[in-house]
Amino acid sequence: MTSQDIEFSNDIQKLQVKIQAVSLPPDLLERMQSMIDRLTRMAAHGGYSSEYEAINRYIDWIVNLPWQGRSQDNLDLVNAKAVLDKNHYGLSQIKDRILEYLAVLSLQSKTRSDLEKGLIRAPILCLVGLVGTGKTTLGFSIAQALGRKFERIPFGGMGDSLTLRGQARAFADAEPGAVIKALRRAQTKNPVILLDEIDRVAEGARSDIMGVLIELLDPEQNVNFIDHFVDYPFDLSEVLFVATANNTTNISTAVLDRLEPLQMPSYSDEEKTTIAKSYVFPKAVAEAGLAQGQLTIADSVWPQIVRPLGFDSGIRTLERTIQGICRKVARMIVEGKGQTFTITPENVKEFLPTW
Question: How many domains does the chain have?
């Protein structure tokens, strides 16, 4: 036996080990085995290397998908409310809707048989609101409250439905779509997947992408979602999809029909002040490397920080302003201009942007 034959035998053995190490659907396992058998026959005539690379890549994707793995839901409403309150100020109606959903899941888990539990259909929440109102971070909080893995698929500027569904292996450099990639990263079949900014897809691809979204979000269809690269049905019925959008104008009627829109409110100056003090400021201080007590902001200064350049609905500008203040203080400390700083109405202009 030549060294090349030995090398080939080792390659084949590696593929066999891969497909036997995981629990795959029987017909999919049979397909994997037939690929390996075909590769063995090709090797007898030489020139199998390129085919090996393609099959190895395909099998690698198949065996690393969570065909059976799932995380255990934490359906404790007290814990869920604590997580939501810790991460978000206000939004009482949004939080109530999320807690209502968790309550339904909790009751279903107690009254349904093990077979029926797999058929629980999660509502598809769509958080609609202007930029900076907390849509994306709320999606993460839902996952944290449930104890599920969190993945995000950005739709902004998406120009091809194949980005979602993947490309057939017949094409060079084919790869799975964003949904399958998210499931591989999560390693569970019941993660929270955030479909971020579904209203901002490229105009030319809108109809195709909306068509794939219908299949993703419809519980009668997503139980057998087919990615072109995987080319085998994958059950997405246990995935909790959460969508976000700035507005619903550019979302097709068929997709909207499968969503449960929740309107994210704009924040008042009073709410922004509370958010800034309790959420944004402590985080910005830590990110800037400042110790507790090195930077203090007088209460009378907050209105100028909250609205330095005018009003916006979210807190993005507020976050940038506070982060800028913290960086300026960090520089002053490093340059030896002091160790503690207090921002007052008299010196606030030294710390705020002037453009």
Answer: 3
